[in-house]
Each structure stands twice: as C-alpha cells, then as structure tokens.
C-alpha cells in the first residue's frame, strides 16, 4: 500500500522502504504416532475430558481448532451423524459437514441432551470448557495441548493440528481414496 501511495504521489516517502521481509519458515509439525495418541487420550480423559473431545474432532472429523471453537449445539445433527461447519467459520469460506464417529458421539449425546439451548457453543468459556453462551478461545485449546505435551514430554513439533494431519494420513493408509479424504 505504501509503495503504491508513494508511486502515485499520495505520500512523499514509503516509511517501510528499508525494511526486510521476514523469511518464511516451514511449518514444524510431525504426525502423532499411535502410542503417543493413546498417552494423549489417557491424559485428557483423566485431566480435561472436554479437551479429549477437541482432540477427537481434530483427528477423526478433520475439523480445525479455530472451527471447533465456533461450533454451536445447533450445528450438531446426531441423527445424521455430522457437524455443520458454517462458511463464515471455515478456513476456505465454504460450508461443509464433518462426520461424527461413534467415539465422538458418546461424548456429544450427553452434552446435547443436557444443554438444550442451540445457541450455546459446544466449548464454552471457563476451565471446564462446558457449553455456554460464549465460545472458548482457540488459543485455550493450544494452551491445554502445550501443557499436556510438556507433562508427557512429547516433542514440540507434535502440535494439536498434528492430529488433523495424522487423521488424514491414517485414512489414506487405510485405503480411502484421496478425493474422499
């Protein structure tokens, strides 16, 4: 913008002309092996069950953490086994339906039955992350993950988003075609 403004005589100088761009760094994520996934699962089942549900949604349903924080109870269709990710919450701006597995469903059913208000967010504010009027902040998921990672002495490259990469890779290894994945 400033370069364009300078070239078109809207300003006398570009205040950012001498700055160097930061180098682009590659993403530093690794897949989560089955043993580590079991350790993560055991940890969150014991310490923070709602976070276990977050991990399952990332791994099994390929929902991004930011998208998870915006899920409202009205987006969950237990009869048809999917969660609607609305266009304004999706990374690519396109609405989609994410499949709910039986494992995820056993955690969702009690929450949907107990909290009947469809406008409640699946993961609300507060340490327990129970459904509420306000959504949990996405960085809270990351903080919980990072604490667990430190407690279990897992590598720093093993991030919450790594579960999504792992889930998609596992589907490919199980023989699911690339277009479906």
Structure description:
The radius of gyration is 20 Å and the shape is globular. The protein is built from seven helices and three strands. Helices cover 43% and strands 6% of the residues. It is mainly alpha-helical and 181 residues long. The longest helix is centred in the first third of the chain and has 14 residues, at 34-47.
What's the pLDDT, averaged over the residues?
92
Rg from alpha-carbon coordinates: 20 Å
The helix content is: 40-55%
Shape by Cα distribution: globular
End-to-end CA span = 39 Å
Strand order of the largest sheet: 1-2-3
**Secondary-structure content class:** mainly alpha
Number of helices: 7
Strand content: 5-15%
Query: Runs with pLDDT <50, length 5+?
Result: none
- Give the SSE order as H and E letters: HHHHEEEHHH
| Biggest β-sheet description | 3 strands, antiparallel
Q: Could you give the count of β-strands?
A: 3
């Amino acid at each position: 913008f400033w370069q364009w403004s300078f070239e078109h005589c809207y300003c006398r100088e570009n205040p950012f002309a001498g700055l160097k761009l930061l180098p682009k760094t590659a993403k530093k994520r690794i897949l989560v092996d089955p043993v580590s996934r079991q350790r993560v699962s055991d940890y969150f089942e014991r310490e923070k069950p709602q976070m276990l549900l977050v991990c399952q949604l990332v791994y099994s349903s390929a929902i991004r953490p930011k998208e998870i924080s915006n899920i409202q109870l009205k987006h969950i269709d237990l009869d048809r086994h999917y969660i609607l990710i609305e266009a304004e919450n999706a990374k690519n701006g396109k609405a989609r339906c994410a499949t709910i597995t039986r494992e995820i469903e056993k955690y969702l059913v009690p929450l949907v039955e107990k909290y009947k208000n469809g406008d409640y967010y699946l993961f609300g504010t507060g340490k327990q992350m129970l459904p509420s009027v306000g959504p949990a902040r996405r960085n809270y998921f990351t903080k919980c993950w990072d604490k667990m990672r430190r407690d279990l002495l897992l590598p720093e490259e093993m991030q919450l988003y790594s579960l999504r990469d792992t889930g998609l890779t596992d589907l490919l290894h199980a023989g699911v075609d690339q277009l479906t994945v």
